[in-house]
Amino acid sequence: MRIGVYSDSLPKLGRRDFFAWCAERGIRDVELGLGAWGPWPRPHLDVEAISQPDERKRLKNELAEYGLSLSAVNAAGNILHPDPGKRADAQRRLDAAITLASEFGVDRVITMSGCPAGPGGGSLGVFPCWATSSDDENIFRWQMENEVGPFWQAISRRLIREAPGLMVCLELHPGVAVFSSKGFDALARYTEENIGINFDPSHFWWQGIDPVEVVKALGKRIGHVHGKDTLLYPDRIRRDGILHFAPPGDPGAAPWHFAAVGDGHDESTWRALIQAVAGASYDGVISIENEDPRYDGETATQRSFYFLDRLLEGERTGR
């Protein structure tokens, strides 16, 4: 495995500066974002500009200039947003990511499963997080049968026809319909193996899920990996639980928040996780994603890089 960086981690750097930052540290793999979710304006890929031949040529030349490879194109967003305009925009960005990846010979696109409305419709997504009341018990099944499953079945068939070497990797995170191994199992009945997962352990730790167990359950479907940690505050969790109304952006109050790699879990935990992923035959990029509210992007990404570099070097040398 080798270390890469997801461009949304460094939103204050323009594309060339981002490429230079990575090259200076010996990082050779970059993941570029153009999705509906992320920093605005998008500093590294513009969905309108990248559709033009001159801009695609410019991107290829810049990657070559800095000795970089494009590991994945990230189209994060709610692909199944109930608002027609937002749904169209997110799907347009997914289409652009697939087209760009295909042209550049990249075999991974990252996004989420999407979160549609429930059976009654409406303009907001309904997150199917439980089934403990008569109003909620059938939401997940309805969404899977009517929205999520059919959409991803169509994408899977499209990839077979148009981009047979490409895998779309879904981030499993609460807030979208497919956020756990059980949810992915339900979706997998609709698709071929060209719909996989972007394995991000930070999304599981705060839920109380052991990421190693996710690897055991879904290892063959891991197509991409994000390097990101979660810092848990046991005293706050005892008081407030893991679910809370405010975004986890206040490190002084949040029960948990995302963190630089190594700031939430120690080397032994990360070593066991990397060994599990390797045991599932994944040998690609660990793409650092920064969402640590305590640091600026460069500081947090640098911390993650140092930790992962030391850890992977130890795995290579047996130390």
Please give the structural blueprint.
Elements: E1 2-6, H1 15-24, E2 29-33, H2 53-65, E3 69-74, H3 84-104, E4 108-112, H4 139-162, E5 167-171, H5 181-188, E6 195-199, H6 202-205, H7 211-218, E7 222-227, E8 229-232, H8 234-240, E9 256-259, H9 267-279, E10 285-288, H10 297-317
Parallel strand pairs: 1-2, 1-10, 2-3, 3-4, 4-5, 5-6, 6-7, 7-10
Antiparallel strand pairs: 8-9
Mean pLDDT: 95
Backbone structural class? alpha/beta
Instruction: Please name the fourth-level CATH homologous superfamily.
Output: Divalent-metal-dependent TIM barrel enzymes
Order of helices and strands: EHEHEHEHEHEHHEEHEHEH
Q: What is the CATH T-level topology?
A: TIM Barrel
Low-confidence stretches: none
User: How many domains would you count in the coordinates?
Assistant: 1
The portion of residues assigned to helices is 40-55%
Give a nutshell description of this structure.
With 319 residues, the protein is α/β, with parallel strands linked by helices. Helix content is 40%, strand content 15%. The chain has helices spanning 15-24, 53-65, 84-104, 139-162, 181-188, 202-205, 211-218, 234-240, 267-279, 297-317; strands at 2-6, 29-33, 69-74, 108-112, 167-171, 195-199, 222-227, 229-232, 256-259, 285-288.
